[in-house]
Amino acid sequence: MTKAIRLRLSERTMRRCGPAVSAAAPAGARASIPDRSRRSSALLRLQREYGNRYVGKLLQRMRDGASAAGGGTALQRQPVPPAACPTVVSLNFSDPLHVPHCGGPAPRATADVRGVTWSLEPDTARVDPGSRITANGTITLAATQPTGTIKARATGAGGCFAELSFDIRSHPVGIASTRLVSAAGGTQFGGTFDHIFDSANGNVASLDGVPVGERFTNVPNPPAAVHALVAPLFPFGGTFTFHTATLTPTAASGSNWFLTPAGGLGGTLDSVTIDQAGINVGRFVQSASNPSPPHGLPGGFTLFQSLHWFCPQRPAANRWIAFITVAHTRTLRNVGGVLEFATAVNGVEQIDAYGGPTAVFNLNAKPASTPRSRPAAATPGATLPSPRTVRLRADTLPANLPAGQALAWSIVGAAHGCSVSPDPADTHAAILAIGRTAGTVTVQAADPTGVNRARVAVVVT
Asked: Which residues pair with 445 in a beta bridge?
């Protein structure tokens, strides 16, 4: 705002320019200044006190002989520039802030002009009385600050202002519940699971959009994305190739979950599966095909999933904060002779019926030793005597053979005139017809694939 001020140069003021200068001097009169150095000193003082522009105008008017009304000299004070209005508010963060503050530099707002007054204003959320912004724009959020958006406002001296909204979120601290969403189906055991997370502020809606990632802690190389699991951790034989997400420095989309307003995982949820083809119950049963099983049933393994949430304001190496560990178990078990495969996340199970090779074990022969069958009579045309027989029986898992399956019976090695055939009255049994030659006969019962086998020796005397 420009303000014109007319000044009368008093005699005292004029003396500061030199004793011979008089405010009442007639137009065009020249003052006698005998001491040039005194005049220069006075001008320097005016320059220091009022500035070059002021002194220059004064001297110019004196030279021109311009006089103000009432005998004074008319001067115009330099206009005071109007106070600038802020037009842009900037923040030193772009991702949501968390309550409580999770680390990193203090959040700060800046404006495009100086001398503004800062305030926090409500937007979708109210401003907690404990939340504040200092004179230099540093923002501090109260632990009870509601989540949503509030605004940082910069107000100029004249009342004009600029403002910018920013997001506030809470963070997960645990799991309230876990549910099975769907079975994997097809050629896999397992299913898809979801969690509802507990929020630090008690309001799951405040978790909306918060990134959550995983890291498995009991695998050979936890930070990796692909893990080759072998015994003893993986008891099913061979190698289980296990794929996981990784804790990326930027919480990139596709490498983690973004929580929903309902507090769930979002996205593809958590898929926990294993190929059915790699599961063979015979590995946990002692038999001819597996003389030294690692242990009996149940057989399985547990992986520990450490869940982390993402604090974007922290340094890149420390942005993921662990908050809970979840057990993922995959277990083959025998329930009263029925085999089932249980996949569990946080104690919630998906149960699948076992469909792999049948275990065959405990093959018994009654009797285990028998005389040879009688030879044929020397009389021509005599009827051959019936051979001696030995009853064979095996146990299986599943206890009842699946529909359409039958055990495969055979003699391994020398038969010594013996033969074996299934017992039509019992799917787990066979009849060994004893020959007329002494020796040891080895009989085998196998599942239809031949993977699992049981054997017994019958001594023929």
From this structure: 409, 454
Which of 42-56, 91-105, 227-241, 372-386 shows the lowest per-residue confidence on average (mean pLDDT)? 42-56
pLDDT band (50, 70, 90) for residue 79: low
Please give the biggest Cα pair distance in the chain.
Answer: 177
359-404 pLDDT per residue, tens: 999 999 999 999 999 886 666 666 677 899 999 999 999 999 999 9
pTM for the model: 0.76
Amino acid identity at 116: V
Q: Is 111 exposed, middle or buried (0-12, 13-18, 19+ CB in 10 A)?
A: buried
pLDDT tens-digit profile of 174-201?
Answer: 999 999 999 999 999 999 999 999 999 9
- The CA-CA-CA angle for residues 165, 166, 167, to 5°, reads 135
How far from 162 is each of 119, 135, 136, CA to CA, in Å? Answer: 11, 15, 15
Show the tokens assigned to 461.
């005397």
Average pLDDT on 96-108 reads: 94
Give the residue carrying structure tokens 């100086």.
114
Residue 133's nearest CA partner among 159, 111, 108, 100 is 108
Angle value at C-alpha 126, between 123 and 129, nearest 5 degrees = 135
360: exposed, middle or buried (C-beta count within 10 Å: 0-12, 13-18, 19+)? buried
| Whole-angstrom distance, CA of residue 324 vs CA of residue 206 | 18
- Cβ-Cβ contacts under 8 Å for 142 (sequence gap 6 or more): 99, 128, 129, 130, 131
DSSP 8-state code for residue 258: E
Decide: 428 and 446 in contact? Cβ < 8 Å: no
Whose tokens are 């600029």? That residue is: 162
CA 180/CA 26 separation, integer angstroms: 104
Write the pLDDT tens digit of every residue in 213-223. Answer: 999 999 999 99
Burial class (CB in 10 A: 0-12, 13-18, 19+), 15: middle
Amino acid code (one letter) for 8:
R
DSSP category for residue 138: B
